[in-house]
Amino acid sequence: MREAYIARGYSLVSTPHIGREDLWHTSGHLENYADSMFTGMELDDAVYRLKPMNCPFHILIYRDKQRSYRDLPVRLGELGTVYRYERSGTLHGLFRVRGFTQDDAHIFCTPEQIEQEIVSCLEFAVDVLKTFGFDRYKAEISTWDGGESLKYLGTAADWEMSENALKRAVERVGLEATVVPGEAAFYGPKIDVKLLDALDRPWQLSTVQFDFNLPRRFELEYIGPDGAKHQPLMVHRALYGSVERFFGILLEHYAGAFPVWLAPVQAVVLPIADRHQEYAQKVAAELKAAGIRHEIDSRSEKINYKIREAQLQKVPYMLVAGDREAADGKVALRARKAGDLGSMPLGEALARIAQAIETRSPGE
Questions:
Q1: pLDDT by residue (tens digit) across 192-211?
Q2: Who is most buried in 52, 173, 191, 313, counting CB within 10 A?
């Protein structure tokens, strides 16, 4: 994800875990989100709060210097841990926790840039889902109620511009989308991308969210081509949502049988007998040098038992080493799904595994 951020023009930032209470007053979190924030702590001459969001800090980075329209868009991304109070009865494994890591980003841009920025966010989201093996997803566009409830910030022109930008972006990316009237946040409309896993369960993941509120509260500005000060548009964007929750979804989706590139252990070395331990160590050293995550099963157990154990652990590749393999510098390669792939030179086996990792193959 970090590599993808850089490739797509984001600056990676790191922000504090706590902030002065004044900051959360300015952002409106203490006004609208206090029940989900942990209580304050007194440090020196101020009260601090654990951050429930990264956005106020990203805004301070944007506001640190005067910006020109030539500087925009500014894209700030962070894999940052945030803290939200959840009642103990609502906590649920990796899916609902009190501290989690957001793949959070905020984009500051001009009105002329906004549609392309939304398109880029959606393309980024789809690319991430495809990379992890998800190919079924849909979008929901949450809009306002036309101002009937009086709960929404911004003008009618703001909402028309932003909602139309979202709708056009969805069409350009080719996503199936449903419009959900009256479900927008009070500070702006949003697109949610939901995926379907292997069991056809929907999961809410990626979100692209307009914000009319924070640029006004923090008095953000940039100098336009006319030399006058203008307020930038701001977009919140998350792709995993929560890294921990996304990991839980991956576990459920793959039932632990991860693609080679994702597997915690990508290969296991299985010496047939104790006399093959020394050669197994050499094989492991080659795996380490190739950057392949591995283990050695050095137990004094029968080889069929070791193979069965590796299969139950859903390790993608098994490298079996016996007398012939040790003498010839080979391994008997086995794959999780395909089974026995035959005896081959160690270098060939390593290249085969490395290619599966490099191409993000689902495995053999």
A1: 998 888 788 888 888 999 99
A2: 191
